[in-house]
């Protein structure tokens, strides 16, 4: 019997490469990138007042406007530098999540939460209202430590080892901001350092882990391991699973090879 062909069979819907690319981004990086796009647009076009998104402590403490503790990490001025900052953030966050935190979404989310908490506390004393560059710097610092020794390229082909990238970025922001100290980036650098110290260095020296991903967060985002079908959940004992970090990036890394950072994220 010949095969039956439906006369009105519809062709498959056309592929949307942008949607496919966005869905392929690791989950934590995807959430950070989406917030870094939606929140600045909402503030710029009047959907919400930009002043209600800044980290201002009086309304936080007196009126419990707790969302300010979150929105301050995703504020950018909408200009060409914003696109560069998003590309820069995506580049290093996705690399961290796909390599070092492969299959460990809970651990990467905990890194983001811890470093953001440290920055919020420091911002109370430093009077910082926008911490978007600090979040990006914390991610940059951890990536640079996991890729120590690999060569990266800066502006005009200047090459140096990855561990110096945070310092180069701070110096760059200092110069383009006409001598203004990029305090938010420096605080983010310190937050990334503290996380890396208590997760990597201190346990090796003292044999005690003082900073570990809580079980409630692991239960929400169980560890996964690669198999031939993609990812599979590790049922039971997920908190004991450790996925080996991915290999360091090859010397072809380029900070300005299609991805750049702009000036410090300073409103006004």
From TrEMBL:
Its main location: endoplasmic reticulum. One of its GO terms (cellular component) is endoplasmic reticulum membrane. It is found in: Endoplasmic reticulum membrane. Residues 228-240 have a biased composition (Low complexity). Residues 228-268 are annotated as: Disordered. Residues 259-268 have a biased composition (Gly residues). The chain crosses the membrane at residues 31-57, 69-90, 110-131, 178-199. Keywords: Endoplasmic reticulum, Membrane, Transmembrane, Transmembrane helix. It comes from the Eukaryota. May be involved in the degradation of misfolded endoplasmic reticulum (ER) luminal proteins. Belongs to the derlin family. This is Derlin.
């Amino acid at each position: 019997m010949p095969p039956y062909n439906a006369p009105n069979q519809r062709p498959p819907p056309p592929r949307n490469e942008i949607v496919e690319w966005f869905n392929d981004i690791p989950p934590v990086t995807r959430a950070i990138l989406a917030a870094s796009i939606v929140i600045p647009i909402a503030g710029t076009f009047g959907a919400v007042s930009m002043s209600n998104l800044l980290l201002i402590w009086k309304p936080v403490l007196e009126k419990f406007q707790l969302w300010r503790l979150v929105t301050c990490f995703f504020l950018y001025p909408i200009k060409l530098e914003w696109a560069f900052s998003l590309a820069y953030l995506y580049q290093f966050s996705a690399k961290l999540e796909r390599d070092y935190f492969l299959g460990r979404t809970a651990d990467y989310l905990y890194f983001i939460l811890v470093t953001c908490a440290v920055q919020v506390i420091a911002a109370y004393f430093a009077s910082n209202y926008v911490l978007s560059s600090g979040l990006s710097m914390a991610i940059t610092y951890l990536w640079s430590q996991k890729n120590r020794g690999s060569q990266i390229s800066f502006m005009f082909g200047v090459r140096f080892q990855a561990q110096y990238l945070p310092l180069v970025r701070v110096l760059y922001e200092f110069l383009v901001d006409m001598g203004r100290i990029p305090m938010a980036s420096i605080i983010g650098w310190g937050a990334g350092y503290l996380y890396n110290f208590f997760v990597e260095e201190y346990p090796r020296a003292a044999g005690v882990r003082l900073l570990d991903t809580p079980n409630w967060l692991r239960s929400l985002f169980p560890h996964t391991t690669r198999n031939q079908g993609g990812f599979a959940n590790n049922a039971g004992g997920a908190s004991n699973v450790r996925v080996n970090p991915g290999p360091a990036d090859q010397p072809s890394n380029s900070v300005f090879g299609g991805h750049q950072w702009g000036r410090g994220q300073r409103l006004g």
